[in-house]
Amino acid sequence: MSKTILRVEDLSVRFRTEEGVFNAVDNISFTLEEQKTLAIVGESGSGKSVTSLAIMQLLAENGHISSGEIYVDDENILNMSSSQVQHNILGKKISMIFQEPMTALNPILKIGDQITESIIEHQGTGKKEAYEIALDTLKQVGIPSPEQRIKQFPHELSGGMRQRVMIAMALVTRPKIMIADEPTTALDVTIEAQILNLIEQLKSTFKTSILFVTHDLNVVADIADDVIVMYCGQIIERGPVVDIFENPQHPYTKGLLATMPTLEDHKGELPTIQGGVPSITQRPGGCYFHPRCPHRMKKCETQSPGVYTVGQQQVKCFLFEGNKEERNDGK
Ligand code: SF4
After folding, report:
1. What atom of ligand 1 comes closest to residue 293's alpha carbon?
2. Which of 136, 182, 191 is nearest to 159 (CA)?
3. DSSP labels for 1-27?
């Protein structure tokens, strides 16, 4: 049986806005198993990126974790001081790659200096050894002519190459967990496929577990073992990737999958889910999805559904009320 490497329990994240304080992430729990890829899927405003930023403790100034626990290797990192998290967890046990590497890379430092800085800080090596590790990692992530690239600045590289550098930076400390937040969204499809292949390869080479945050279900089908679907800060469905794709249960997941283009859809419009995700300040009462749900019932407007088991999946929806109940978030 695989070991749990990351366990998030009852995590809530609040944001202060001009209109008041609101939950961006609402009491979510999940686990990531060793050497597995867990995808968090959702539209913009679903809370998927906030979840990953909360784990990395990189929330914006107006956001904070209001409750919950985050265990990395059975240690609750929310009980640690920020310097303990900084030195013992981030970069060492968890690394992150972002959507747009230009925002994460320092534009005025050469690639080599940025990577060696991270190695020296986390592994305490000398400069020469750090340089050799950096060079070797650039080779492993498929950077051509690494001896030349290591001396270049970020703006001298293509978007795909920059993302490879970000992955190299995330990997130099051999983290147990890599969080990838929409890492291929800014890339064209050919480069996207190369980066996804690379992430897959590195997962088995370095035995890294991956938390993959995306709005793109096509990507999920390619790389995930398990999937969490988020809507308005809540997990509304979860399960193994095959079950979610072949037999989605929640009306929202069904709607999302119906909007995915297939080879047969060479003409005609794709179906859409009516309406949009409400903003954090305008979430409705009851089930947050009810204004858009074709199956809504009277109680959906006022009551929040519990989470029910359907085969290998857990679904937050009243349609499955007769099934075994996992938890009742009843608000
Ligand atoms: Fe639709 Fe009701 Fe299920 Fe929400 S709880 S998804 S409104 S049927």
Report:
1. 1
2. 191
3. -PPEEEEEEEEEEEEEETTEEEEEEEE
Tokens of 59: 């929330």
pLDDT digits 0-9 by tens, 52-92: 999 998 898 899 999 999 999 889 999 998 888 888 888 78
Contact 230, 41 (CB under 8 A): yes
pLDDT value, residue 287: 97
pLDDT single digits (tens) 248-273: 999 999 999 988 776 565 556 667 78
Write out residues with Cβ below 6 Å of ligand 1. 251, 287, 289-290, 293, 295-297, 300, 305, 317-319
Ligand 1 center to residue 261 CA distance, Å?
Answer: 25
Mean per-residue pLDDT for 109-124?
87
From 273, 295, 298, the mutation candidate for ligand 1 (largest count of ligand atoms within 8 A of CB) is 295
Q: Where are the domains of the chain?
A: 109-172
Please name the residue whose Cα sits nearest to atom 7 of ligand 1: 290
